[in-house]
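To the wet lab folks,

You asked to see what we're planning to order before we commit. Fair enough. Below is the target structure as tokens, and below that is the sequence we designed to fit it. If anything looks off to you, flag it before the synthesis order goes out.
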């Protein structure tokens, strides 16, 4: 997914990484970072929102699934998706959508 995001939203960077033979290393690095971040975020969420059988109708699986989806969503936006140059510039200047 990250590769497709680069190709669509940052074609110059994508071509440069490919030309230098650095694309695979870059993708592997993003994957490692994303996995590490996911594990940290999931652990943090579990600490902040401990399982309560009353809230989750005795379904530990539903609780874990909800926290996993939240962690995945965070990682997706923080590490995997690649904003286009205009969006990135706006973000640097404090604009949010």
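Sequence we intend to order:
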């Amino acid at each position: 997914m990250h590769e497709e995001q680069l190709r669509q939203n940052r074609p110059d960077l994508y071509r440069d990484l490919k030309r230098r033979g650095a694309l695979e290393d870059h993708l592997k690095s993003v994957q490692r970072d994303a996995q590490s971040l996911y594990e940290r975020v999931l652990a943090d969420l579990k600490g902040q929102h401990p399982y309560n059988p009353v809230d989750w109708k005795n379904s530990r699986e539903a609780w874990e699934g909800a926290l996993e989806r939240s962690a995945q969503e965070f990682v997706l936006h923080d590490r995997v998706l690649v904003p286009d140059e205009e969006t990135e510039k706006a973000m640097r200047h404090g604009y949010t959508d």
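Structural context that might help your review: The two ends are 22 Å apart (CA to CA). Residues 2-80 form one domain.

Thanks,
Computational group
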